[in-house]
Specification:
With about 190 residues, the chain is an all-alpha fold. Helix content is about 85%, strand content about 0%. It has five helices and no strands. InterPro entries: AH/BAR_dom_sf, BAR_dom.
Length: about 190
C-alpha cells in the first residue's frame, strides 16, 4: 500500500477550502455560483423520484408481506444472494387443514365433501397468491430496487462531483477577486 503524505495534505487542504467556501455561502459571506435553472429542475425531479420510489417500494413490500420478521428474513436472503425457501401461504395452509379435516370426517359425508371441494380451491388460491408474490417481486420491486441501488447512486455521485467543482470554481473566483482588490490597492499607493 502506497501512502503519499503530499497527496493526503493536498486532499486535506482542498477539503478545508471547500468547507470554508460552503460555510461562507451558507452564512451569506461568499458568492455562490447558481446552477442552470433547467439543471436545478432536473435535480429536484430526481430527488422527488427517489423519495417516491422509496415510499412506493416500502409500501409495496408491506402489502406483499405484512409480517415484519418475514420481510427481514427476505431482506437477509436477498443480501446474501441466496434463494428464499418456499413458504406456504395462509390460504394454502387453510386449504390443507380443510382437506385433513375432510379425511377425518369422511369423504362421503356432506361436510367432508364440501371441505374437500373448498379446501382444493383454497389451495389453488394460495398457489396463485404465491405466484403473484413472486411475479410482483420480480417484475415490479426489482426495477425499483435497481433504480435506487444503481441509477440513484450514479446520480448522487455525479451531484457530489458537480457540487465539489462548483465550490472549487467559487473558491477560484473569490481568490481572483481578492487578488484584483489587492492589485488595485497597490496601484493606488
Amino acid at each position: 500500500m502506497d501512502f503519499n503524505v503530499k497527496k493526503l495534505a493536498s486532499d486535506a487542504g482542498v477539503f478545508f477550502t471547500r468547507a470554508v467556501q460552503f460555510t461562507e455561502e451558507k452564512l451569506g459571506q461568499a458568492e455562490k455560483t447558481e446552477l442552470d435553472p433547467h439543471l436545478e429542475n432536473l435535480l429536484s425531479k430526481a430527488d422527488s423520484t427517489k423519495n417516491w420510489t422509496e415510499k412506493i417500494l416500502r409500501q409495496t413490500e408491506i402489502l406483499l408481506q405484512p409480517n415484519p420478521s418475514a420481510r427481514i428474513e427476505e431482506f437477509i436472503y436477498d443480501k446474501l444472494d441466496k434463494k428464499l425457501p418456499s413458504r406456504t401461504t395462509n390460504a394454502e395452509l387453510l386449504g390443507q387443514y380443510m382437506l385433513d379435516a375432510a379425511k377425518e370426517f369422511g369423504v362421503e359425508t356432506p361436510y367432508g365433501s364440501t371441505l374437500i371441494t373448498v379446501g382444493e380451491y383454497q389451495k389453488k388460491l394460495g398457489e396463485a397468491e404465491r405466484e403473484f408474490l413472486h411475479t410482483s417481486a420480480v417484475t415490479f420491486l426489482s426495477p425499483l430496487r435497481n433504480f435506487l441501488e444503481g441509477d440513484w447512486r450514479t446520480i448522487s455521485k455525479e451531484r457530489r462531483l458537480l457540487e465539489n467543482r462548483r465550490l472549487d470554481l467559487d473558491i477560484c473566483k473569490a481568490r481572483l477577486k481578492k487578488a484584483k482588490q489587492a492589485e488595485a490597492k497597490a496601484a493606488v499607493r
